[in-house]
């Protein structure tokens, strides 16, 4: 009888451990948001003025994993090349243009279906003021297009981001 109890207890423990190890993220993610997105445009609105801080030909991507992780990289198409070919020795002018024309950040995220929002917990960023912050954005998805509103843009005001679902490209 003792052996039966031990075997049963061991089996239940292993089953419980296996279920715990295969469980997904604590909160469900919006499956429509999950995937890679290509940034089409970014406009800032502040004090009644609209600008395109990354230019008309912005380059960038946002990736939302089913595991609750995300990453964003945005650059201007016209970023200057560093003349020395060494980012550590960029001139002051090159460095300013690169800092003003790019941003990257990553961390974890959760979604809320009730208000079509995504909240990002930023763990690392090229704009250090965002590190350790939690920011809420609203979004709508129609087909392969997403409109995302960030009320806390790194340049002040709010940002409207238009994205298209990324497609595989041949190498």
Describe the protein's architecture and organization.
The protein is α+β, with helices and mostly antiparallel strands. It has a single domain (25-165), classed as Lipocalin (Beta Barrel). 18% of the residues lie in helices and 42% in strands. The chain contains 2 helices and 9 strands, in the order H-E-E-E-E-H-E-E-E-E-E. An 8-stranded antiparallel barrel has the order 1-3-4-5-6-7-8-9. Strand 8 (145-150) and strand 9 form a beta hairpin. The chain is globular, with a radius of gyration of 22 Å. The model is unreliable at 1-26 (pLDDT under 50).
Compact description:
By secondary structure, the protein is α+β, with helices and mostly antiparallel strands.
Shape annotation: globular
Low-confidence stretches: 1-26
Task: Characterize the biggest β-sheet.
Answer: 8 strands, antiparallel, barrel
The appropriate CATH architecture is Beta Barrel
Helical content (DSSP H or I, runs of 4+): 10-25%
Biggest sheet, strands in spatial order?
1-3-4-5-6-7-8-9
What is the CATH C-level name?
Mainly Beta
> What is the C-alpha radius of gyration, as a whole number of Å?
22 Å
Oligomer: single chain
Structural class: alpha+beta
Stated plainly, the CATH topology is called Lipocalin
What share of the residues does DSSP label as strand, in percent? Answer: 35-45%
The average pLDDT value, as a whole number, equals 86
How many β-strands, per DSSP?
9
Distance between the first and last residues' Cα: 64 Å
Order of helices and strands: HEEEEHEEEEE
Number of helices, where a helix is a run of at least 4 consecutive DSSP H or I residues: 2
Number of domains: 1
């Amino acid at each position: 009888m003792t052996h039966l109890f031990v075997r049963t207890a061991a089996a239940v423990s292993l089953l419980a451990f296996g279920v715990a190890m295969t469980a997904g993220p604590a909160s469900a993610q919006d499956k429509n948001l999950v995937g890679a997105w290509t940034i089409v445009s970014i406009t800032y609105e502040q004090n009644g003025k609209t600008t395109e801080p990354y230019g008309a030909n912005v380059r960038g991507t946002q990736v939302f994993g089913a595991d609750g992780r995300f990453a964003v990289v945005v650059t201007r198409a016209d970023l200057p090349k560093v003349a020395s070919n060494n980012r550590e020795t960029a001139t002051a002018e090159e460095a300013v243009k690169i800092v003003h024309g790019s941003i990257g950040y990553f961390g974890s995220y959760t979604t809320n279906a009730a208000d079509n929002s995504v909240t990002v917990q930023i763990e690392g960023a090229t704009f250090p003021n965002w590190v350790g912050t939690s920011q809420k954005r609203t979004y709508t998805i129609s087909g392969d297009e997403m409109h995302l509103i960030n009320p806390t843009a790194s340049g002040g005001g709010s940002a409207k981001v238009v994205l298209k679902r990324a497609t595989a490209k041949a190498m």
